[in-house]
Amino acid sequence: xxxxxxxxxxxxxxxxxxxxxxxxxxxxxxxxxxxxxxxxxxxxxxxxxxxxxxxxxxxxxxxxxxxxxxxxxxxxxxxxxxxxxxxxxxxxxxxxxxxxxxxxxxxxxxxxxxxxxxxxxxxxxxxxxxxxxxxxxxxxxxxxxxxxxxxxxxxxxxxxxxxxxxxxxxxxxxxxxxxxxxxxxxxxxxxxxxxxxxxxxxxxxxxxxxxxxxxxxxxxxxxxxxxxxxxxxxxxxxxxxxxxxxxxxxxxxxxxxxxxx
Amino acid sequence: xxxxxxxxxxxxxxxxxxxxxxxxxxxxxxxxxxxxxxxxxxxxxxxxxxxxxxxxxxxxxxxxxxxxxxxxxxxxxxxxxxxxxxxxxxxxxxxxxxxxxxxxxxxxxxxxxxxxxxxxxxxxxxxxxxxxxxxxxxxxxxxxxxxxxxxxxxxxxxxxxxxxxxxxxxxxxxxxxxxxxxxxxxxxxxxxxxxxxxxxxxxxxxxxxxxxxxxxxxxxxxxxxxxxxxxxx
Lengths: 261, 233
Prior knowledge:
The complex is a heterodimer of chains A (261) and B (233).
Chain A: H1 2-27, H2 34-38, H3 41-74, H4 80-92, H5 95-106, H6 120-144, H7 148-156, H8 161-189, H9 193-198, H10 209-216, H11 221-260
Chain B: H1 3-9, E1 14-18, H2 25-28, E2 33-37, H3 39-47, E3 54-57, H4 61-68, E4 76-81, E5 83-88, E6 108-111, H5 116-127, E7 137-141, H6 144-152, E8 158-162, H7 163-167, E9 173-177, E10 186-192, H8 199-210, H9 212-220
Parallel strand pairs in B: 1-2, 1-3, 6-7, 6-8
Antiparallel strand pairs in B: 3-10, 4-10, 5-8, 5-9
């Protein structure tokens, strides 16, 4: 009885701890000023920069990450685990290190001598660098989970590798790919450290929602809270999408063999 | 006495100080704990209950505000500074005077408006009738050392920092002095945080900064005497 009560108390404490900061943001929002705050140029500019850079970054992640994940999932070669580790490294790398690395690579005096720092392209690269690996990692797992006999059957029935990929592999892996992409999108939207170091912070150009929160922290705390609330809502929507994709993917796996027979 | 007990017995003073004091404060008191950053960020943290014993700001406005809210003692001026324009040693945008900042495409890095040096930057440009160069700003940084780092790296073409910051990266930047008549009044204020449990140690730290030895360290680092010398005649 006591043990059950303790477990219950621990659960309650954990949930309260996780929920409290989120509740506090909304509890301290100045609802009366919400409309004026949300329509201020600082907020709308940050929202546009965030959504635009995220959209481009995630398009790059999908277009380049999907073939990379498929190759890594379907081929066994020497040093494969090393390559996979390399792909996963940015996930655990502190964002500040990512920022230094991007500057060292793409800075004016970096390895590639580009003029990318301080531009919107820099934001896109920072977001793609920190969020892409989350998608690729999930995509590798999704491709590995595809039943090889179905792929073999498709090839036996005369479909080429490209047709098999688009008509068999991709539909089967869709749920996992979607979940990975939702996670990558959410992580990219929250990107802060690498962005502020590599891209700087300029309203309407490189100032994303998290950078705006940081800038307003000591200028207008109420506005920072509103921006925080906005980010929480967007992240929550993404997580719900992820959950929904997760549940629909299991059903896709379950029904796939019977529909193809 | 070992470990934890020793730590408790020796009350280490926690100093929240402007980023421009990063190099000089540890020379004045190597034993204190420091949190360096934009003075505005530090002031906001103190208002939200951060465990600071001393607040040293790159202006008088922020500590005055804390004083008026009853959060710290009446601030005193402990040093002064001047603003300079810095360019990377390689000078990629060929900037030889502040007027060259008007050239289109110059990547000018400044601190955000709320940061003391960001506000001084806008003042000096206003005094010189050069506010239009703000159109060339590529980033609003969170403290002066961020501006310094981005110019020293060569990523930004130019930036406004304190003359003392430029001295910390010799060989990496070229300093372009700004005219004395356009200089804003850059006074550094220091105060003891009211909620400090180490008030005695905090007052001792302030005394150390104000002492002859402390002032000598500041002067050696390029800061100006806390009281402007009277001009003779």
